[in-house]
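In response to the reviewer comment on reproducibility (Comment 2.3), we provide here a single inverse folding case reported in full, input and output, so that an independent group could reproduce the run without further information from us. The C-alpha cells appear first.
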C-alpha cells in the first residue's frame, strides 16, 4: 500500500485481507524479503475491522509452504492461520511465509459470511 493506506496494483486483496506489495514478488529478488533467513519471507497482513479471515495451505504442499504469523508460536510455519481484526479498527499482523524454492503457491482463504476463495501467489516464480 502507498503511504496513506491507499491500495496499489501490487497489493493482493481478498475480501477483508490484504498483503501490501505481494503481487510484485513474482519478479522480485527474494533476498530483499527474507531478512537473511532462508526460505522465510516477511510481509505483514492487514485485516479490516471486525473481520475474521482464515488462510490455509493445501495438504499437497504443506511440507514446502507455511504461514509464519504468530509470535506466541515463535513464527513457526503453520498450515493455516486465522486472523481476527479488532472490532473498531483495521489490524496489522507481523509475519510472512515459509516457501521452499521459487514457486506458485495456492492459498485457500475463507472469511466469515463469504464463500471460500483460492488464490495463487507467485513467490519469485514469474507469472503463475
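Designed residues, in position order:
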Amino acid at each position: 500500500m502507498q503511504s496513506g493506506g491507499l491500495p496499489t496494483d501490487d497489493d493482493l486483496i481478498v475480501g477483508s485481507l490484504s498483503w501490501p506489495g505481494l503481487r510484485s514478488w513474482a519478479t522480485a529478488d527474494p533476498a530483499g524479503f527474507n531478512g537473511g533467513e532462508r526460505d522465510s519471507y516477511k510481509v505483514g497482513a492487514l485485516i479490516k475491522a471486525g473481520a475474521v479471515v482464515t488462510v490455509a495451505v493445501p495438504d499437497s504442499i504443506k511440507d514446502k509452504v507455511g504461514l509464519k504469523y504468530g509470535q506466541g508460536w515463535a513464527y513457526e510455519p503453520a498450515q493455516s492461520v486465522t486472523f481476527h481484526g479488532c472490532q473498531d479498527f483495521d489490524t496489522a499482523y507481523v509475519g510472512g511465509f515459509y516457501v521452499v524454492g521459487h514457486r506458485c503457491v495456492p492459498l485457500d482463504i475463507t472469511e466469515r459470511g463469504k464463500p471460500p476463495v483460492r488464490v495463487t501467489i507467485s513467490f519469485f516464480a514469474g507469472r503463475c
